[in-house]
Specification:
two-stranded antiparallel ribbon, mainly alpha, 103 residues, 3 helices, single chain, transmembrane
């Protein structure tokens, strides 16, 4: 039973990365398709606000999933890996948005 909790905690890290990848892919694809309004902000730079929402959702999911694992040992490491991975995904997505924003 203890192994299942540890395994769930590790899989939750990958799940958070998947949330960040899917959310970032949606934002980038909508930005390249010509979406002009993001949360009331008209203009191409509003897509960065949408990426901020993706990152916020990833952080909340990371904390919720790690708390749901009910395994205190390694919580900080697993939560940090989740958030850092999501941050890396969103950073790459923001670099992918630069051609849309700048031109």
């Amino acid at each position: 039973m203890a192994e299942q909790g540890t395994t769930f905690g590790r899989w939750a890290v990958v799940g958070v990365w998947a949330i960040a990848i899917v959310g970032s892919a949606i934002v980038v694809s909508l930005a390249y398709s010509g979406t002009d309004e993001w949360f009331g902000d008209q203009g191409p730079s509003g897509a960065f606000a949408a990426l901020g929402v993706v990152l916020a959702a990833s952080v909340l999911a990371a904390l919720a999933l790690q708390l749901a694992s009910r395994r205190p040992p390694g919580f900080v490491g697993r939560a940090s890996a989740s958030v850092c991975g999501a941050l890396l995904v969103v950073a790459v997505a923001s670099l992918a948005l630069l051609p849309v924003v700048l031109g």
